[in-house]
Design brief:
It is a single chain. By secondary structure, the chain is α/β, with parallel strands linked by helices. It has a single domain, classed as Rossmann fold (3-Layer(aba) Sandwich), CATH 3.40.50. The chain has seven helices and seven strands; from the N terminus they run E-H-E-H-E-H-E-H-E-H-E-H-H-E. Helix 1 packs across helix 7 and helix 3 packs parallel to helix 4.
């Protein structure tokens, strides 16, 4: 994929997967907007990108708040004149015993992980639809949308909602040539990869645990204008874990 100076917004871009997605688009030559609530961490990523010749800036955003998302889109278009790509990556974990999970914790997880995807997609699409060639939205879901461990109700509900919202958006935005896809990462190690054990790698068909770059490369593929026949899908990137039998030998 060659750069055509697309304008890409990445939410939750200060750490982990989001930071790697931002780096990948910047290396490609895209103009990158880092959106996050963690200002200090985001500026570290921003400095890294700009020192390597990338074109990027940061907009502090709490994705739970509609006014912050509206502001993010306005600042982006004021700066670059358009929006081509939105990566809805911002989210939080919530793993708590079911009977101890409060309604406030449930709603905060819903607002952070799921409601934000609806709001950001709606606001970004208002601008993307005016592009001559449309654009792309990618939503970061999780394999927990299709499989679960105990005490993951709030998180699983949001990720399942993202997958369903993705194909609904793909249908609604298709007249504007906007592709909408989801990525469901499995185990993506965002900490010290060298500290993983051999058994961690061996439980994957791929024989390794995933890394943020695995998700970033998929984002580049799904937002490439040449791949506009791919829309409405949930791309599972998990080293084969969701297809692996777990019976003991």
């Amino acid at each position: 994929m060659k750069s055509n100076e697309q304008v890409a917004i990445i939410t939750g871009a200060a750490n982990g997967i989001g930071a790697e997605i931002a780096r990948a688009f910047a290396k490609l030559g895209s103009k990158v907007i880092l959106s996050d609530i963690d200002e200090a961490a985001a500026h570290k990523v921003l400095t890294e990108i700009t020192e390597n010749g990338g074109d990027a800036f940061f907009v502090k955003t709490d994705v739970r708040h509609e006014e912050d998302i509206i502001n993010l889109m306005k600042i982006t278009t004021d700066q670059y004149g358009k929006i081509d790509i939105l990566i809805n990556n911002a989210g939080k974990g919530m793993f708590k015993p079911f009977f101890e999970l409060s309604i406030d914790e449930w709603e905060d997880t819903i607002h952070t992980n799921l409601r934000s995807v609806f709001l950001a997609s709606k606001e970004a699409a208002k601008y993307i639809k005016d592009n001559p060639n449309g654009g792309s939205i990618v939503n970061i879901a999780s394999t927990r949308a299709i499989m679960s461990e105990p005490n993951s109700e709030a998180y699983a509900a949001t990720k399942g909602g993202i997958v369903a919202l993705t194909h609904a958006l793909a249908a609604s935005l298709s007249p504007y040539h906007i592709t909408v896809n989801a990525i469901s990462p499995g185990w993506i190690e965002t900490g010290d990869y060298s500290k993983l054990k051999q058994i961690d790698h061996e439980q994957h068909f791929s024989r390794r645990v995933g890394q943020p770059i695995d998700i970033a490369k998929a984002c580049l593929y799904l937002t490439d204008p040449n791949n506009d026949f791919v829309t409405g899908i949930n791309l599972v990137i998990d080293g084969g874990m969701t297809r692996k039998m777990i019976y003991e030998e």
